[in-house]
Amino acid sequence: MAKRQVFYSFHYANDVMRVQQIRNMGVLEGNEPVSPNNWEEIKRRGDQSIKSWINDNMNYKSCVVVLVGEMTASRKWVKYEIKKAWEDHKGVVGIYIHNLKDPNTGRCSQGQNPFSQFDFGNKVKCYNPNSQDAYNDIEDNLSNWIEEAIDIRNNY
């Protein structure tokens, strides 16, 4: 199966180290991470700059993968990315990442399902990988979860 192009949505400050583990699996091709310095520059230019960056980076992607940490569901830009992805008829899938170990902070608490805030939220799956082996569970299933999300979106 060909690797899909995906957009990763997550809470940068809390979860970047967990997200990097998923990027490094090599299972999917995704948007290149923005450096902290570049992200600060984008943020300084205001909300329209952030929207433009998201829109440009989400363009031509098949699916948005929301990597759900402890505070992801409350993040303004994650909500924007979810809504935009659905409106653009992209696959949308969530994966809880609280059981991936951050080298600095260890594991975190499971966050809320970010899709429950949307009318279409019951159509989007949010997977909770095996707590004892979350890394391998994600690595083994990520491609299938993406394909399923794309199929689900194509039915609505």
Give a description of the structure.
With about 160 residues, the protein is an alpha/beta fold. It is about 40% helix and about 15% strand. It is built from five helices and five strands, in the order E-H-E-H-H-E-H-E-E-H. The chain has helices at about 10-25, 35-45, 45-60, 75-85, 135-155; strands spanning about 5-10, 30, 65-70, 90-95, 125. The protein has a five-stranded parallel β-sheet. Strand 3 (about 65-70), helix 4 and strand 4 (about 90-95) form a beta-alpha-beta unit. Helix 3 (about 45-60) packs across helix 4. The protein is globular. The two termini are about 25 Å apart. The model has no long low-confidence stretch (mean pLDDT about 90).
Write the layout of secondary structure elements.
Blueprint lengths: L4 E5 L2 H12 L5 E2 L5 H9 L2 H12 L4 E6 L7 H12 L3 E6 L29 E2 L6 H21 L2
Parallel strand pairs: 1-2, 1-3, 3-4, 4-5
Helix pairs in contact: 3-4
Strand order of the largest sheet: 2-1-3-4-5
Which regions have little confidence, pLDDT < 50, spanning 5+ residues? none
Tertiary shape: globular
- Residue-averaged pLDDT: 90
Largest sheet: 5 strands, parallel
Element-level helix/strand string: EHEHHEHEEH
Strand content: 5-15%
Amino-to-carboxy terminus distance: 24 Å
Number of helices: 5
Q: Share of helix among residues?
A: 40-55%
Structural classification = alpha/beta
The tally of beta strands, per DSSP, is 5
Radius of gyration: 15 Å
